[in-house]
Amino acid sequence: MGQLNQNPPLVISFSESGNEVAEKIATALSVEAQPYKKGEMDPARAAVERGFQQGRPIIGICAAAILIRFLAPFLADKKTDPPVLAVSSDGKSIVPLLGGHHGANQLANDLAHDLNAHAAITTASENIFGAGLDEVPFGWTLVNPKSAKRAMASLLAGAKFHIKGEADWLAQHPAHDPDGEVQLLAHIHHREEQDAPHYVPQKLVVGVGCERHCPADKIIDLIKSTIKANKLHPKAIAALASIDLKADEVGLQQAAAHFGVPLRVFTAEELAAERERVPNPSAIVEQEVGTPSVAEAAALKAGTLLVEKQKNKQATCAIGIAEEVIDPQLLGRALGTVYLVGLGPGTATLRTPEADRALRVASDWVGYGLYLDLAADAKTHQTEHRFDLGEEELRVRHALELAGTGRDVALICSGDANIFAMGALIYELLVAEGDRAISDAAKRVAIETCPGISAFQAAAAKSGALIGHDFCCISLSDLLTPRDDILKRLDAAATGDFVTAFYNPRSMRRTDLIEIAKDKFLAERPDDTPVIIASNLGRPAERVRVVTLAEFNPEEIDMLTIVLFGSSQSKSFVRGSGERVAYTPRGYAKKAAKEAAQ
Q1: How far is CA 591 from the centre of its chain?
Q2: 330-360 burial, b for 16+ CB within 10 Å, e for fewer?
Q3: Tetrapyrrole methylase domain spans which residues (predicted)?
């Protein structure tokens, strides 16, 4: 009866004896398990905490107390906390700990069937009636949960309920009786009774047409007034629908978000196929976009037209209704999205939650093979599209065209995607013309940037606070930047006394620019200026050192290394632990001295 959380579950074992059960559960759910490795309790705990905060269902093969202790600081609200289940290491007992009526009980019962195990359901409604009134199936919404709680209390006291409307899943409830004294509502209209639980089926599709750059409030107000005039409930809307030419219309996207539903789009040909059923065709619209109707034709994709075209000065809408609840995924296609994901230095612990979420919700991953491997811990069901080093434009073009078909695509970069990575290239291709032009569909996709921790930030963080004052970043690669421009920037950074991070410092072909950089900076600052050399950040072979500018050896540097030169004010010292650290003062000592003198 319940609807599972849409995030992929995290299946994780906390003992070697539980790894086999974890693998069985992961196979049943079509995800990858995270097995336990000896001595790795802390990474497992971090994965559970991160997954819970991301809203992922948690299935731990462990004692219930382990999950309780790990997650206790993060518990917020029963309506928002994701399902959490504890499974014994032998797979015989499955205990829903959180989210019983929000997917956990259903998941426990499903897994019990798959594993021939016992689901230890502890919620009273399940034990008495087999289901709770606040646990609704896909395509239904309970719009007044507090009333369901009161009704359930009456049922637990021995009452029966009757249904006003139609809902097969409620009619199968053990407490259902046509003459029952507790009333439940099940229809798409505004509820008349304030105290009765009201279940609304999502059977409506709102077709929308609008002028280019139509403000969202014009669309929202039109839909609201149409819904109200026809005494419909807004929660009965399953989707907004329009022509694919409007896929990038911000007002439409914001309107869909306002009603909490997806925006689905159709081609002009698909909408034109409804011309015989459209009551208000327009020759002008057909001439402009290739179909005699947008709003009514899109609404008809639900099945039957319930409300004909309504309009204001900038938008039109119509409402269609289906016989059964609608799965929006089967309606037209989605607005495709490219998630521009920065992985950070490479470890999951230094990946931002926003980047982690994008990796998991994407249907496709596009990127250089090494970067895809660094994100492997976040993979569940995604299709990988691997490219070689140097194929940057090919991979960005591929990601945009994939998204143009309605897919959610993660374009994966190391560090931060907007720092010497793919961010600028995406926008360059969106306006490219001629041979470099991408398709119209690819130009309309949504772009969502998920920032990451760049290499210069990670290197500085691991060795003190060298970027505590003004800094800049320079790429020494002359593949895309003219060599003369790089030399000008080296002069500017050196004479400007910036802390400077050097990306792509050296390659097999290009060896002298980092040597030239050393000479230019030595001419402007002391020999003992600290230099950070960081290699393979976030990877097993990671190495971070602090040396002086005079002793810095450019021949030790490769393309997996980032180098930071300090300013003339930067300093370094050896801590009691023997670790040499570097920092750049902000000027607080001068400020304190000035205040003391006053």
Answers
A1: 44
A2: ebbbbbbbbbbbbbbbbbbebbbebbbbbbb
A3: 337-552
**Strand pairing category for 182-186 and 161-165:** parallel
Task: Count Cα atoms within 13 angstroms, Cβ side, for 504.
Answer: 14
User: Can you tell me the distance from the alpha carbon of 545 to that of 300, in angstroms, rounded to the nearest whole number?
Assistant: 66
Task: Please choose, from the candidates 47, 44, 85, the residue with its C-alpha nearest in 3D space to the C-alpha of residue 64.
Answer: 85
Tokens at residue 314, please? 């900038």
Place of tokens 């790795």: 40
| Single-letter amino acid code for the residue at 568 | S
Q: Is 153 helix (H, G, I), strand (E, B) or coil?
A: helix
Give the span between the Cα atoms of 576 and 571, in whole angstroms.
16
- Residue in the block written with tokens 């249904």: 163
The residues facing 342 across adjacent strands are 413
Q: Report d(CA 167, CA 230) in Å as an integer.
A: 22
84-106 burial: b if 16+ Cβ within 10 Å, else e: bbbbbbebebbbbbbbbbbbbbb
**Alpha carbon distances (Å) from 517 to 126, 490, 492, 512, 571:** 71, 6, 11, 9, 19
What letter represents residue 575's amino acid?
Answer: R
- 3-state secondary structure at position 13: strand
- The one-digit pLDDT tens for each residue of the chain (598 residues) are 333 335 788 999 999 999 999 999 999 988 888 898 887 788 888 888 888 887 889 999 999 999 999 999 888 777 778 899 999 999 999 999 988 777 888 888 889 988 999 988 877 666 555 566 777 888 999 998 888 888 888 887 888 889 899 888 888 888 888 899 888 898 999 766 568 889 999 999 999 999 999 999 999 999 999 999 999 999 999 999 999 999 989 999 999 999 999 999 999 999 999 999 999 999 999 999 999 999 999 999 999 999 999 999 999 999 999 999 999 999 999 989 999 999 998 888 888 989 988 998 899 999 999 999 999 888 878 999 999 988 999 999 999 999 999 999 999 999 999 999 999 999 999 999 999 999 999 999 999 999 999 999 999 999 999 999 999 999 999 988 999 999 999 999 999 999 999 999 998 888 899 999 999 999 999 999 999 999 988 778 889 999 999 999 999 998 889 999 999 999 999 988 888 999 999 877 777 777 778 7
